[in-house]
Design goal:
By secondary structure, this protein is an alpha/beta fold. Strand 13 and strand 14 form a beta hairpin. Helix 1 crosses helix 21. The radius of gyration is 26 Å and the shape is globular.
């Protein structure tokens, strides 16, 4: 009997969203594929050179791990950096060492495999384990790793990445006979967006939507920084270590050599970039044409729609890289001679970061700024396919699920000042502004004025950026809030046909019990025919760990199963009840001296069980456990 419901779940995954599409492949559960596009720093990089590392017993040989091998990082950091750094002007490798992305699922499951380092660097491993547990075939799950150091145009120029991605979709369709389901996390969302725009130049306009319908059945945007991420600015000016044992100065050197860093700069929702190719095809006159323009609201409202100014930076009145000498130099200086050189504090909004105003203002005080301005203009603002630093309207895909975490302390603004040290340590962060549960606080705990959102972000991406996809919902929305854990439905709250106005957040009038984590579903009540959109907000789900969240996986599987069931009567699975789906969901209730969820679970010892909870398993007699969700 257990085999029967496992077959139902297998059928569910491979017939994802049958109810909405009505495609020719319906009824055959073996035709769908899942394509995973990982996020920033979530793909292994391997050496493609022979590099002798002096003063270290460890050298780099072809196919050796570079990202990530913590052993070599700790023992030969200079060699490791040679294999990681790119030329900031042309994005070529270091003359002594080349690195290239690994391929296959193994490239995205664990970045640094090992007994200790493996669990710490796990990304998509739990996701793949769920697929295996429910019997998904090996060739039904396809990973499309990429060199996350490169800008989108360089991904295509050097690796033909988007050509290969198009072939991947077409091969999956030919191999399995049905379209694919796309799972993109973090930066992977931007990669997928660029691919859809690039595809417009490869396919005749009248065939574009048909190609999408034939090859892409659903898109899951997980933790998507739709309006950028403030941490990108932090990495650009002071360094982002990714939790590695390196200094912030070293991290800044590395991060600023990657053009992909600018791909996730925060930008304004009111400013848009023009597509040069489409302007040419439409017969537009480019004389006097600006490729980046903003609505009047950008200049009428504060902070470009963000909670606060993202960067507040102190600069001296004296120009030049030596405007702030070292502390020892200042001790020997007559301070009366520099009274006129009092520092000035400047503030910059998201628009002023995305259009380069910030970097232009401090280029006389930082040698990196000219290189960043060059990258920003050449690789992003003047990109002929897409200026990614502009808001994205809903793509013409049949099914879109936007999923992200909320309710965590997230950085939304910074105060920088010169440190008195030479580059790359020439800036320090003097204060940080956080958003948490609808309020703004500084690092010292003081309340900060601004425009906080109704919730906070996922610890990496602010809520304002994550929740932009709510604009993709229809004019009327059904809202449901339920506990994340298994529940009997007694605490489920629901609001139906809520009016939704574009660019206004949807605020449910629902209560929250203390110490209870919820998941809130925003689902189309009215939508474009043949299209549907849903937004899931998961309380306390961390940006990096959301892809291995059991709650997320459970909801995915239930929605998949529901969509292919012949008795399904609505577009989305009911939220009225949640019970165990796997043996791992059963546990021992010590208060009642029995397995919890007696309706679903029973005590059944198997040799090798070491505690009572392991012996709690799903009942063999309940093959219809999923029928509760119809």
């Amino acid at each position: 009997m257990r085999a029967t419901w496992k077959l139902h779940l297998l059928t569910a995954f491979l017939l994802l969203f049958h109810g909405a599409g009505g495609d020719d492949w319906s009824g055959d559960y073996s035709k769908l594929s899942g394509i995973i596009i990982p996020g920033l720093a979530s793909t292994q990089l391997r050496a493609w050179s022979i590099l002798d590392c002096p003063y270290s017993p460890l050298d780099f040989n072809p196919l050796d791990l570079v990202w990530l091998d913590t052993t070599k990082l700790l023992s030969a950091v200079n060699c490791w950096l040679k294999c990681m750094l790119l030329d900031p002007h042309n994005q070529t490798d270091h003359p002594d060492c080349q690195s290239r992305p690994d391929s296959g699922l193994s490239a995205i499951t664990e970045l640094d495999p090992g007994y200790i380092t493996g669990p710490l660097s796990s990304v998509w491993k739990e996701w793949v384990k769920w697929c295996i547990e429910f019997g998904i075939e090996a060739n039904a799950i396809i990973a499309v790793p990429y060199d996350w150091r490169l800008s989108p145009s360089m991904l295509e120029e050097r690796d033909l990445y988007f050509h290969k991605l198009k072939l991947t979709f077409e091969t999956a369709l030919k191999l399995r006979g049905g379209p694919s389901v796309v799972f993109a996390h973090s930066l992977g969302h931007h990669v997928f967006r660029y691919f859809l725009e690039w595809l417009k130049l490869e396919i005749a306009p009248k065939h574009y939507v048909k190609w999408l319908d034939d090859h892409i059945h659903a898109y899951f945007a997980v933790g998507a920084p739709l309006l950028g991420a403030t941490e990108t600015v932090k990495g650009t000016l002071s360094g982002l270590t990714f939790g590695l044992p390196i200094s912030e100065g070293t991290a800044r050197l590395m991060v600023n050599s990657f053009a992909s860093t600018l791909w996730m700069l925060p930008f304004s929702q009111y400013c848009k970039g023009e597509n040069k190719y489409w302007n040419h095809f439409s017969g537009g006159d480019e004389r006097g044409h600006q490729t980046y323009h903003c609505e009047n609201r950008e200049f009428q409202l504060n902070f470009s729609g963000w909670p606060t100014n993202i960067v507040n930076i102190e600069i001296p009145a004296t120009r030049g890289y030596e405007a702030y000498p070292s502390v020892t130099d200042m001790a020997a200086t007559n301070f009366s001679s520099i009274e006129c050189g009092l520092p000035t504090q400047l503030s910059f909004s998201a628009r002023e970061i995305a259009d380069g105003t910030l970097f232009k203002a401090i280029e006389d005080y930082d040698p990196d700024m000219r290189r960043i301005l060059y990258q920003l203009k050449k690789l992003y603002l003047d990109d002929p396919v897409l200026n990614p630093l502009s808001p994205w309207e809903r793509p013409p895909l049949k099914n879109i699920f936007c999923i992200y975490g909320t309710g965590l302390k997230t950085e939304v603004g910074y105060y920088f000042a010169p440190s008195g040290k030479p580059y790359p340590d020439n800036w320090i962060i003097t204060d940080v502004i956080y958003e948490i549960e609808g309020s703004l606080f500084s690092r010292s705990g003081n309340l900060v004025e601004g425009n906080p959102g109704a919730a906070s972000g996922d610890e990496t991406v602010p809520y304002h950026s994550l929740s932009w996809c709510k604009n993709w919902l229809g004019p009327k929305v059904n809202i449901t809030r339920s506990p994340q854990s298994e529940h009997d439905g007694s605490h489920v709250q629901e609001e139906l046909n809520v009016e939704h106005r574009r660019e206004e957040d949807i605020l449910p009038n629902m209560i929250r019990l203390p110490r209870v984590k919820y998941i809130t579903y925003f689902e189309d009540s009215e939508s474009i025919p043949g299209r549907r959109t849903a937004v899931w907000e998961i309380d306390k789900a961390n940006h990096r760990n959301i892809v291995r969240s059991p709650v997320l996986m459970r909801e995915l599987w239930l929605q998949m199963w529901y969509d292919i069931h012949p008795d399904a009567k609505s577009k989305f699975v009911t939220k009225a009840k949640r019970g165990p789906l796997r043996n791992e969901d059963c546990y021992w209730d010590y208060g009642k001296a029995r397995c919890a969820w007696a309706e679903y679970c029973e005590y059944r010892y198997v040799f090798g069980d070491v505690h009572l909870g392991q012996s709690c398993r799903l009942k063999n007699s309940r093959a219809d456990l999923l029928s509760n969700y119809l």
